[in-house]
Amino acid sequence: MSSIEYRSLSGQSPQTDFRTAVLRGLAPDKSLYFPTEIPKISADFWKALPGLSPVEIGLELMAPLVAGSLENSALQQILNDTLSFDFPLVAVGEHCYSLELFHGPTMAFKDVGARFMAGCLEEFNRGAQKKTTVLVATSGDTGGAVARGFLGVEGVEVVILYPRDKVSDIQERQLTTLGKNIKALRVEGDFDACQHMVKEVFLDPELSALTLTSANSINVARWMPQLLYYVLAYRSYLKMYNKSQANSRNELPEPVFSVPSGNFGNICAGILAHKMGLPAAHFVAATNSNDTVPRYLATGKYVPHKTQPTISNAMDVSDPSNWVRINELFHGDLEAVREKISAFRFTDAQTRQAMQEVAKASGYICDPHGAVGFLGLQAALKAKEITLTASTPGIFLETAHPIKFRPEVEKTLGINLEIPPQISAVMKGKKEFDSIDTYGQLREFLLTSS
């Protein structure tokens, strides 16, 4: 199998292999890495999808993206761990489905990318003499997933930056109570401030002697494996459809995916899957009040505003890093983006109302992020400029278990949530973190800890 290389989106750095792209995180010119080509998966694969296991699917899709850096045996071992839990597609209405991505160890969709990247780094660091420091900024779920995914990985230290008072108590516990090789830094500021600090680290000549990489979705090993659950959702959809249409010759309608979007790595991975051959009628980027992308698609002007705190805090991002990758997937053609992606903005009031309406109609409990995804799906089906019908199957991504936003969910719905075992385990731990206000303090922390 020929190797796909990775290039800088700014074009100012040499192309490299998957391994080097993962270990660097950002290209030397400080822009994001992107594959030099998008592999096309054969039509036979998509037809055979219902009969394939998740790991078989993962091998088919990820092997061409990591060729030359990971042997298939190592990739299979990583996928065995990454895909060791379920990704159920749950009907919540006629032609409407929730793709539940919260059945992993930290009960959030970030478990897939975090576990895949941890497996890659563990493989790449075998026999290495120097410690790798993994930096990550989190608006909520990334930190916990990365902390759990990298916990105890030899030769790796994880440093997580998170904004004070802007993550839920459970989210904070998931990244501050594990200890060992996991260090947490509480930042006075919002997620964009945390993300900016992480990017500054890679520009700092004083830190060039450290072996640093990032575990945010700017890293290709965190970003790309998220394409797998879109394909697994389509596999579940095929199984449902084939069962219900056993004696029918009706043509299979392609689904629309509605994705609650913050840093846009998730929806970007879904579009990557589509470019590789996944049938998809449309994608919806559903945002909260941080609506840079909906405004951009409406006006053609990309103007981030100050980040606004919302009840869907993992999406509180005003300058999403991965938008440049989405732009690249469409070769910089804004009209082509608009044909395949719609973006809608929703307020906290609308989010709470959606949570209540879904629960009343179907008994299904959405977390605030899933509710935003549900709202995006409904908006897309009503939009005149989008070619969808009432019978178009709609899949919205439920990115985190409602328990992670327990106070808001219980208050909005008037219910008491049971605490799952994955969460009860971290509730007993003691929060341990350092507080920082400035980039200088982060630099000093990294130099001291190294």
UniProtKB/TrEMBL annotation:
This is Threonine synthase. GO terms for biological process: threonine biosynthetic process. Pfam families: PALP, Thr_synth_N. Its cofactor is pyridoxal 5'-phosphate. It catalyses: O-phospho-L-homoserine + H2O = L-threonine + phosphate. PANTHER family: THREONINE SYNTHASE FAMILY MEMBER, THREONINE SYNTHASE-LIKE 2. The modification N6-(pyridoxal phosphate)lysine is found at residue 110. Pathway: Amino-acid biosynthesis; L-threonine biosynthesis; L-threonine from L-aspartate: step 5/5. Residues 99-385 form the Tryptophan synthase beta chain-like PALP domain. GO terms for molecular function: pyridoxal phosphate binding; threonine synthase activity. The keyword Lyase applies. Keywords: Amino-acid biosynthesis, Lyase, Pyridoxal phosphate, Threonine biosynthesis. InterPro entries: Ser/Thr_deHydtase_PyrdxlP-BS, Thr_synth_N, Thr_synth_N_sf, Thr_synthase-like, Threonine_Synthase, TrpB-like_PALP, TrpB-like_PALP_sf. Its EC number is 4.2.3.1. Belongs to the threonine synthase family. PROSITE patterns: DEHYDRATASE_SER_THR. It comes from Robiginitalea myxolifaciens. Residues 5-82 form the Threonine synthase N-terminal domain.
